[in-house]
Specification:
By secondary structure, the chain is an alpha/beta fold. The protein folds into 2 domains: 5-132 and 306-320, Rossmann fold (3-Layer(aba) Sandwich); 137-287, Rossmann fold (3-Layer(aba) Sandwich), CATH 3.40.50. The chain contains 11 helices and 12 strands. A 6-stranded parallel sheet has the order 2-1-3-4-5-6, with helices on both faces. Strands 9-8-7-10-11-12 form a 6-stranded parallel sheet, sandwiched between helices. β8 (193-197), α7 (204-213) and β9 form a beta-alpha-beta unit. The chain starts with a strand and ends in an 8-residue tail after the last helix.
């Protein structure tokens, strides 16, 4: 598939874009990222319905008009109407791939990539133990070779803290914030420094807990201004601490090959509980205790499954388009 052009249809979310870049890089595709932001009924009805009328789908001069791409990758439920419309317009001429999508219409896609903890199976399903992303071993090695002085000046062990926030599964009651603050304070007492990066979902009380827990310790906390230093923070870590409300963030942390603490908030975790169980079974990740009594940097294996998933996608594509030539 190397050299084929691919439309990437996704909302502007860091986890989505990381998955898109990871898959396109592993396949050697030439990406054309088409960010979508459906509102109103189009957002509420997705994955059902059609692309929003404002897109002028299929009309000359619109973002979604012929020539149709050899490959279209959609991420999340809001991308499903677009993939279905492309399939109707282009037929078998476009190979459709859905990531992070719902069960609805999955049979209409050529490939659906889902996390193993979703428990789905089918002829077009690729079940992945962790989320796809673009933090390959080569990329992390390059980042480690060029760490900014401000990061290398922090004393080891450096703890990279990656924050999610409230979602449908995790409520984050006040006792969660207190629990996280205590755990961070115990790491600070053991001589750790901290690199902290929030996400768009990180609520103020969660940030307050991190500020409280790391008070007095050497630290760098990204405040949202400028470029997110997350890639460098990930590469610089001696130890990682990630909130367990995001499959993408925990998957990226697993690629670093460093010990990983997962802070599991209270809530109704559902499929997240299966993800956490799988993570802890690897031995590289452990649940964050309320108090870290002794600092142990246990052995951890880097886990980057994106290349394996990409080869599976390519095998399936060859069965449907064995004579397709690269088209850029």
């Amino acid at each position: 598939m190397a050299g084929l052009s691919a439309w990437i249809i996704t909302r502007d979310r860091a986890g989505n874009l990381s998955q898109a870049r990871g898959l396109t890089e592993a396949l050697g595709l030439v990406p054309d990222i088409k960010l979508i932001a459906p509102t109103g009924l189009a957002q509420l009805l997705a994955p059902y319905g059609a692309p929003p009328g404002v897109e002028r789908f299929g009309q000359a001069g619109s973002r979604f008009a012929p020539p149709w791409p050899p490959v279209a990758i959609g991420i999340g439920r809001t991308a499903v109407p677009y993939l279905r419309a492309i399939r109707r317009a282009a037929g078998a001429g476009t190979f459709t791939i859905l990531l992070m999508g719902p069960r609805a219409y999955q049979s209409e896609m050529d490939v659906v990539i889902v996390p193993s903890h979703d428990g789905r199976a089918g002829a077009n399903i690729i079940s992945a133990p962790l989320a796809i992303h673009n933090f390959s071993p080569a990329r992390l090695a390059a980042l480690r070779a060029a760490l900014p002085d401000a990061l290398t000046a922090l004393p080891s062990p450096r703890v990279t803290v990656v924050l999610g926030g409230r979602n449908k599964a995790f409520r984050y009651p006040p006792r969660d914030h207190a629990r996280l603050a205590r755990a961070l304070a115990s790491l600070a007492r053991l001589g750790c420094s901290f690199l902290v990066t929030p996400s768009r979902r990180s609520h103020p009380e969660l940030m307050d807990a991190v500020l409280e827990g790391t008070t007095g310790a050497p630290r760098i906390i990204w405040n949202g201004d400028g470029t997110n230093p997350y890639p460098a923070f990930l590469a610089a870590a001696d130890l990682l601490l990630v909130t367990g409300d995001s499959a993408s963030m925990t998957s990226e942390a697993m690629a670093a090959g460093r010990p990983l603490f997962v802070f599991v908030p209270e809530g109704t975790p559902g499929k997240f509980a299966r993800l956490h169980t799988a993570l802890f079974a690897t031995g590289s990740a452990r649940p964050l205790p309320d108090i870290v009594e002794t600092l142990e940097l246990w052995p951890a294996e880097a886990d980057f499954a994106t290349d394996t998933i990409a080869r599976d996608v390519e095998r399936r594509w060859r069965r449907t388009a064995p004579s397709a030539a690269p088209a850029i």
